[in-house]
């Protein structure tokens, strides 16, 4: 069984799932943390982050995006 990796505080995913997301931008947010969206380039990631922010209920932390992570193969190498 392949390991689970914490990519953001409180958000751990199996390496198999993360391998499918290499070279993608992950928009992370919510409570508990989760992947809210995936983008192919930095502009798309920025737009999705802003769109999610605009739609979020600022009184509910469960809806608010918090980070954009660009996932590279080098980040996963120690676990492969």
Please render the helix and strand layout as text.
Elements: E1 4-8, E2 11-14, H1 15-19, E3 24-29, E4 34-39, H2 42-55, E5 65-71, H3 73-76
Antiparallel strand pairs: 1-2, 3-4, 3-5
Walk me through this protein's architecture.
By secondary structure, the chain is α+β, with helices and mostly antiparallel strands. It is built from three helices and five strands. The termini are close together. The mean pLDDT is 91.
Defining traits:
80 residues; 3-stranded antiparallel sheet; two-stranded antiparallel sheet
Short description:
The chain is an alpha+beta fold. It has helices at 15-19, 42-55, 73-76, and strands at 4-8, 11-14, 24-29, 34-39, 65-71. The strands form two sheets. A three-stranded antiparallel sheet has the order 4-3-5.
| Residue windows where pLDDT falls under 50 for at least 5 positions | none
Strands of the widest sheet, in order across it, are 4-3-5
The profile of the biggest β sheet is: 3 strands, antiparallel
Distance between the termini: 11 Å
In terms of DSSP E residues, the strand content is: 35-45%
> Quick one: overall form?
flat
Could you give the order of the helices and strands? EEHEEHEH
Number of helices: 3
Radius of gyration: 13 Å
Mean pLDDT: 91
Helical percent range? 25-40%
């Amino acid at each position: 069984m392949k390991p689970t990796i914490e990519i953001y505080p409180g958000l751990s995913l199996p390496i198999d799932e993360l391998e499918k997301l290499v070279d993608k931008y992950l928009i992370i947010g919510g409570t508990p943390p989760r992947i809210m969206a995936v983008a192919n380039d930095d502009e798309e990631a920025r737009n999705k982050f802003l769109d999610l922010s605009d739609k979020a209920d600022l009184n509910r932390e469960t809806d608010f995006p918090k980070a954009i992570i660009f996932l590279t193969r080098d980040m996963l190498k120690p676990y492969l």
